[in-house]
Design brief:
This protein is mainly α. It has 11 helices and 2 strands, in the order ααααααββααααα. Strands 1-2 form a two-stranded antiparallel sheet. Strand 1 and strand 2 form a beta hairpin. Helix 3 runs antiparallel to helix 7 and helix 4 packs parallel to helix 7. The protein is globular, with a radius of gyration of 22 Å.
Length: 335
């Protein structure tokens, strides 16, 4: 797409306005209900769909297809991020009424940092086409790593603070408790961070690590920086509501890592084929409709098999509990 500076400015202003509305709605600390999370999750998805339809009408089928493929991929990868967000919330014992504020600021930090990543990635790809080989190989390696992690014991996972976070804590110090939504307080004559600021930084900086695979993945679907940025923005901006909506469902998506590994591996192969094509080698290239079909099919199948596996596991655990006599005792009348 030939995107003018004016369109870039209008898009950023529009996204900023949406973020401002989201911040205004969530400005008062409160426990987010399933109903509230569900309504706003639908709102964000509808907004993304309308934006994609706009690209389809004014930018053509290619641009619209690339946006939807990128958005669905980034959204599915962001769901995997929620597992880590749950660990972070537990690690820092974030009160439930403050979690929505933590996610809002954390995701905003991630969005700004990703914009920098996208700009750098676009500049590198425009100058060095061989980088596609590196991106492709990295995605294939990441796919294999996801499979290995899925086969490991997920219950043993625990969030570990990164070096940047530990350095900030040593430099400024951290208060021993939460002080509402305050980020800094005066303690013994010294200005120190509150746990609220620490967990916000943890969410934001941890998401940057996820960008190391999500950014190459979407560049495998489109090389248009405008589409890459907007797909990432819409995927991230609905992440807060999605956290509260499917928080209890996350543990049931037992096959999600396998599905994501297939998607990343598929896009990795697509990138390698594209790199070979750019080098003058006559190889078939995977079209956007095929990519979109593969991504949607894998996600649907993964969700169905995950829910079936979770149901069977729950039934097996119930039978085992009944065999041990742990289940509810039925009266003679019930029998």
């Amino acid at each position: 797409m030939d995107v003018s500076l004016t369109l870039w400015v209008l898009t950023i202003l529009g996204l900023s306005a949406l973020i401002a509305v989201d911040f205004f709605i969530g400005r008062k600390p409160h426990d987010v209900s399933i109903k509230e999370a569900g309504i706003w999750t639908v709102v964000w998805i509808v907004l993304a769909a309308l934006f994609g339809l706009g690209l389809l009408i004014w930018g053509g089928a290619q641009s619209g297809g690339e946006f939807f493929a990128g958005y669905i991929t980034e959204k599915s990868l962001s769901v995997d991020n929620l597992f880590v967000f749950v660990l972070i919330m537990a690690k820092f014992a974030v009160p439930s009424q403050y979690q929505q504020r933590v996610l809002l600021i954390g995701v905003l930090i991630a969005l700004v940092l990703r914009a920098i990543f996208i700009a750098a990635g676009a500049a590198i790809l425009a100058s060095f086409s061989w980088v596609f080989y590196i991106f492709g190989a990295f995605l294939i390696w990441t796919a294999w790593k996801l499979i290995q992690e899925a086969q490991a014991d997920a219950d043993a996972e625990e969030f570990e603070e990164n070096k940047l976070l530990r350095a900030a804590e040593r430099r400024f110090g951290v208060a021993d408790r939460y002080h509402g939504t305050k980020l800094w307080i005066e303690e013994n004559g010294k200005r120190v961070m509150t746990p609220m600021l620490v967990v916000m930084l943890a969410i934001g900086t941890t998401d940057v690590l996820f960008a190391l695979d999500s950014i190459p993945a979407i560049f495998g679907l489109t090389q248009d920086p405008y589409i890459v940025f907007t797909a990432n923005a819409f995927a991230l901006m609905g992440l807060r509501q999605l956290y509260f909506l499917i928080g209890g469902l996350l543990r049931k998506l037992v096959h999600l890592s396998y599905g994501l590994s297939i998607i990343l591996g598929f896009i990795g192969v697509k990138l390698v084929l594209h790199a070979l094509h750019e080098s003058g080698v006559h190889v078939p290239e995977i079209s956007i409709p095929v990519s979109l079909g593969v991504i949607c099919s894998v996600l649907i199948i993964t969700t169905i098999t995950s829910l079936r596996a979770s149901r069977k596991q729950a039934e097996a655990e119930a039978e085992a509990a009944a065999g041990r006599g742990d289940g509810p005792v039925k009266s003679d009348i019930d029998a």
